[in-house]
Amino acid sequence: MTLIHPVLLCGGSGTRLWPLSRKSYPKQFSRLTGTESLFQASARRLEGPGFAAPTVVTGADFRFIVTEQLAAAEIAPAAVLIEPEGRNTAPAILAAALALAARDPEGLMLVAPSDHVIPDLSRFQATAQAAAAEAAAGRIVTFGIRPDRAETGYGWLELAAPPEESFAPVAQPLVRFVEKPDQPTAERLLASGRHLWNAGIFLFSVPTILAAFRAHAPGLLAGVEAALAGAQPDLGFTRLAAGPWAALEDISIDYAVMEKAGNLSVVPYGGVWSDLGGWDAVWRETGPDAAGVVAGGAATAIDCTDTLLRSEAENLQLVGIGLRNIVAVAMPDAVLVVDRSRAQDVKLAVSALKARGIPQADTFPRDHRPWGWFESLVKGNRFQVKRIVVHPGAALSLQSHHHRAEHWIVVEGTARVTVDGETRLVTENQSVYIPLGSVHRMENPGKLPMVLIEVQTGSYLGEDDIIRYEDAYARGQGARG
């Protein structure tokens, strides 16, 4: 069995799934259709016999979320490459290829987005293994999905002949890529039998993809080589050099390489697949009942048809009565209501909120940090109440504030608290006061998550009111904890 090195791309923002998916916490880290996040499910799909440990390419803001979720899934990555800024898929894939070349110069790479739904793990793995010989022979393999509707939200692949009726994973040359079509075109593609959906998943050898970049995007190759040569280790991550990376063209792998290469093959995949590109896809993949209704979380549907109701807050009851073809998603800080036929236009809401300077456009109500997370419960004039959760063994930085004092009340677990050089344990139902200007730190010495309520009082309560003296996570000024 050929060993395949998975590469998970994990940097997108998923604005069409707002308000659940936002720039600060995009959809791949959310549990949209199961008990694990899409990212965890993607990593699990690419582990086991025949698969090496994954390489993850992500942004600095997500690096600790990546490692936390992989640890929860009990998956150890081979490498986590940190992009200084998003430059699209071509530079990300090239960086992963160059990094893998140092470990396995002839290795096979399976590049996959981290936000797809592919529930049949064994069938997908068997399809990937069936494609390995084609990739080892110098072909760039892309995977084509069996279409079941005239979908306008996906790109398509044209084959020379229809795939086998059983959709066996038998490779054939790619005739051409087809951009996302309009409805009449999509109906023609579906009827032809020679067109498959483009999954955006690729399998190739390291020498093959590097040769493709040399032939079709040599400028990218030089820049990514410089970014990798100047990379710095950072708490187990590899942080690519910012200067060369910023100079790279922002371009997808399709435009940079795939549409120019002549050695592409398509391997059909006949199982269930979705990229969850909008709330209509979530409705479809979650499994509507006989009336076409999906109700998730604290949601109740009464006399509704073809409707998705989803509440992401335990104490926020969402009730729909007599709705037809509606998507309603409730978060603690934002609510979306949209006709299901307009689900692809949700990104327009994000743009409109950004234009008005509304933080909910990008910022998730729960703020994830390397030591855990926090969320604001109540905010008013000169005060704010937060819930803070600290992972076992984790610690916030040693810090002080110019403009606020803090009261900490432990409600679960035990905190080790340092205030102006004095350290003591604070257990459940105990509290501690942090005067304005005091140098302080909070740690969780236990083996279970520690939860406390923080009450801030002062003239300014912004997250940038911080002086950091020591930090286990090597962060600069201006970030909470």
Overview of the structural elements:
With 481 residues, this protein is α/β, with parallel strands linked by helices. It has 3 domains: 4-269, Spore Coat Polysaccharide Biosynthesis Protein SpsA, Chain A, CATH 3.90.550.10; 279-355, no CATH class; 366-470, Jelly Rolls, CATH 2.60.120. 23% of the residues lie in helices and 32% in strands. The chain is built from 11 helices and 28 strands. Strand 19 (372-380) and strand 20 form a beta hairpin.
- Give the class-level CATH name of the largest domain: Alpha Beta
Shape: globular
Q: Helix/strand/pairing class, anyone?
A: alpha/beta
Low-pLDDT segments, ≥5 res = none
Supply the CATH architecture of the largest domain. Answer: Alpha-Beta Complex
Task: Tell me, rounded to a whole number, the average pLDDT.
Answer: 93
In what range is the share of β-strand residues?
Answer: 25-35%
Distance from N terminus to C terminus (CA atoms, Å) equals: 47 Å
Total domain units: 3
Strand order of the largest sheet: 18-19-20-27-22-25
With helices defined by DSSP (H or I, 4 residues minimum), what is the helix count? 11
**CATH homologous superfamily grouping of the largest domain:** Spore Coat Polysaccharide Biosynthesis Protein SpsA, Chain A
Q: Biggest sheet, in brief?
A: 6 strands, antiparallel
Q: Under CATH, the topology of the largest domain is which?
A: Spore Coat Polysaccharide Biosynthesis Protein SpsA, Chain A
Please provide the count of β strands.
28
Radius of gyration: 24 Å
In helices, the fraction of residues equals 10-25%
